[in-house]
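Submission sheet (multi-component)
Chains listed below:
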Amino acid sequence: MHIWAVGGGKGGTGKSLVSNGLGTRLAEKGQQVILVDADYGGPNQHTYCGIRKPDTSLVQFFEERLPLEVIAQKTAIAGLRLIPGNINSHNTDNLTTTQKQKLFRHLKNLAADHVILDLGAGTGYDTLDTFLQADVQVGVIAPDTLAIENFYLFLKNLKYRQLGNTLSMLGLRDRAKDIWKNRAEHGISTTKEFVAHLRTIFPEFSERFNEEQKKLKLHVVLNLVREHRQAEVGHAVKSAIGKFFHIDVSYAGQVRYDKDLWQLFGQDTPALHRGGSFTLRQDLERITEGILNAQPLERA
Amino acid sequence: MDEQECRRILEVSADASLEDITHAYHTMKRIYEGEHSLFIVPSMDEFSPEARSAVIEEIETAYRELCRIRAEAKPQIHTERLSIPEADRPIDGKTLRSLREAAGVTLDYISSQTHVRLEYLTALEEDRFWDLPPAAVNVRGFLSMYAAEIGLPVERIVPAYMDRFQKWQTRRVK
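Outcome: structure written.
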């Protein structure tokens, strides 16, 4: 089973749309897919799926310990099930890290080919950790500086988190903190120098950190493309991520803006069902294939 | 910097032509040199002026290196197969043609790459000097491009052929 995470820092870039499109496409290819609305603060994956009032949601998992297998409900698309987010809860976005980790553990045991997590906006530790633990990592951006800026920040935080996590795993966190605090003494001024210093004094860290860094394989999706000249943004951002952030990255493709998408919601059919938006379906199909081509997944 | 590294930097595949490479290079220059580029976020340390000039420098080096590698590789493909006549022997159109055919290059292709008219290229190969432009300088230019396109040693081919052309011209004037 493969866990997919869809994230990207800024809100409103289309993470939910892309997650839904990936899920729909994979299910149409005959795979068993479970979509998880992990956007705790802004769940709307049920609306994309055409479910007006979900019977169950993550609330039952967190509060009543209902198994995820039971919560996952069928959608109008064969093979695609949904675990809706916390909708009827007085406490949607204040879950503890322990709770979120428990969710991730349970997700791994679901009976499906693919589990797709629609992550919320922001760069909180839990979001970053979930993204880093996923097998397929998808970042969604829009062709404007606001989205790109926030996406870079998201990536930067992912890298810092990887560093922090590696140090914690090896029990070196406190010692590293001391070094950073007294960085002037060690002749360190940048993060790059800090990492280089850590590598020389802790060989075990160096090795482990390399392994952790290999786990970040990013797929970039450019959403909200309204005009032809915006298409270049996707390639350029992909290139810049490789050159300035040194992250293994591939460009999955673009999704054209559909001015009629809003009319597809609030009905009993999924927004991306056959007969719905043709361009969105076409683009999201191509993106799914693009990701699968760049990172072939063995069938579990 | 080896070829693979250069290709990684310019983000081109192994089968990219020199044209693809040049295109990739110009695209990158536009992306990374533009002061108001969308993709560059000056507020972040990652995009410091030093980091940016290092990236541009890397792109420049990769392009220069890749052009050099390609230019070197091109004639080498043929030098073993083609038997270029000895230095003291004159070269005629027939020899040119056999060298070109041995290299597997068509006249149409040479014409499309060099923008020299097909009629002139044919005239060169058939020794029809009277169908060539009257000025030797033009003929020499066409011939140089022709030879370079096939991957022949220009400095060896051109004087040997031009020698015959100029002799013909002197004869005609008399």
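Remark: The two ends of chain A are 5 Å apart (CA to CA).
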